[in-house]
Amino acid sequence: MSLRRRIEILHRFLVPPESGQSWTAYLWLVYFAFFFVEWYFRPVGPLELVLGLATVAVFLVLYFSAYRRIGATALWHILAIAALAAAWSFTNAGASVLFIYAAAFAHLVGPPRKAVWVVLGIAAFAAVIAPLARPEPFYWMPGVFISLMIGMANIFFAEQGRKNAELKLGQAEIKRLARVAERERIARDLHDVLGHTLSMIAVKSELAERLVDRDRERAREEIRSMGESAREALADVRKAIGGYQHQTLEETLEHMRLSLRAADIDPDIDVDDDIDLPAQTQGMLALILREAVTNVIRHSQARHCRIRIEASNGELSLAVEDDGGGRIRMDGNGIQGMRARIESLGGTLTIGARGSSSLHASIPKETA
Predict the structure, then answer these.
(1) In this structure, are residues 159 and 112 in contact, taking their beta carbons and an 8 Å threshold?
(2) Cα angle 324-363-292, degrees, rounded to a multiple of 5
(3) What CA–CA distance (Å, rounded) separates 40 from 37?
(4) What is the spatial distance between Cα 15 and Cα 66, in angstroms, rounded to a whole number?
(5) pLDDT, position 223
(6) Average confidence (pLDDT) per 10 residues, the chain, 368 residues
(7) CB–CB of 85/99 below 8 Å?
(8) Which residues have a Cβ under 8 Å from the Cβ of 241 and sit 6 or more positions away?
(9) Which of 107, 163, 165, 210 is the most buried (most CB within 10 A)?
(10) What is the pLDDT, as a whole number, of residue 76?
């Protein structure tokens, strides 16, 4: 595995794509330098240095871990960062920057109203602790007010991101409905084209059969006409279906990501970069994924959904798992349809192996 690939895997682990931060997550760590400013102006003892470095390590773990958390788990990360800030406020004025980091993650706790209360709680806590440690206003006021500003701004941007995801989902749904309407149009066109042409061919074949003994030349002409009609019908069919294409796997995964985020479910999607599938297999997997994610959204009451597609040992593996309490109905039409599609590719479908609503499919690579 190349160094670049290893760095990409590490980056995706530290800052998942669903966080929307990408490489900017490392940029925000620049502000943590305020924690060390006071050490520049006074001597630092061995114990304080060791405790400071330990705090840095704990903070970095909490910082990168928080990007993968929502709900109560995210709240515990926020409280832990705020506790570090409170513990250091009495010996290090720069520790107030940790209150700002804690407030910046408040939008992960839940709906905006709940997140606002978390930001206000952090600011109030900072307003109590910081003045006790350093009564001078220029020490503690920036931490309090910047915590409010950053926390509220992140809540606003997170809510805007959720609404944008819903908007993109709506646009994708419009495109899907447009494709459905196009397929219905194609079906009508095929019915009109083939219905008329095949009826005409049937009439001409009966006529040619009657004429074959009485007027061979005319019978031959009718048979030639049937061949021309069949070729014209074939051309019309090709024109009718020429614009139809299967939805690609990449388009489906993006649509599923938006669907999950709009349903307040945190998506974790990972696909091997070197997977190259034909259009037919991509279309089949797209239908399977759509049904699986629909089950998660409708029935699981989950907060996280994990989708993995990887190729190993001559097999293509698809896994959809969530942390909800729902259960998949084995006799449902959707499950039966998924099983039929997977088996048509020579694969197998396993349900409930890792949780009541988990779904795993394996397809031979040579078939895919």
Answers:
(1) yes
(2) 25
(3) 5
(4) 9
(5) 81
(6) 80 79 84 83 84 89 88 90 87 84 88 89 84 69 82 86 81 81 68 62 76 78 78 68 60 81 81 77 77 78 87 84 73 70 81 70 74
(7) yes
(8) 186, 190
(9) 107
(10) 92
> Alpha helix (H) ranges present in the chain?
3-14, 24-27, 37-41, 46-66, 72-88, 97-104, 112-133, 137-211, 216-241, 249-262, 279-295, 333-344
Task: Supply 116's token pair.
Answer: 């606002």
Check: CB of residue 117 under 8 Å from CB of residue 107.
no
322 φ, ψ (degrees, to nearest 5): -145, 165
Torsion of CA 67, 73, 77, 79, to 10 degrees: 140
Residues 6+ apart with CB under 8 A from 307: 253, 256, 267, 268, 269, 270, 289, 293, 318, 319, 320
**Amino acid at the residue 271:** V
For the record, the structure tokens of 219 come out as 């019978």
> Contact at 8 Å (CB) between 323 and 295?
no
How far apart (Å, rounded) are the C-alpha atoms in residues 37 and 30?
Answer: 12
- Would you state the pLDDT for residue 243? 46
Which residue type, as a one-letter code, is found at position 260?
L
pLDDT score at 157 = 85
Spatial distance between the Cα atoms of 192 and 188, rounded to a whole number of angstroms: 6
Q: What is the DSSP letter of 64?
A: H
The pLDDT assigned to 11 comes to 79
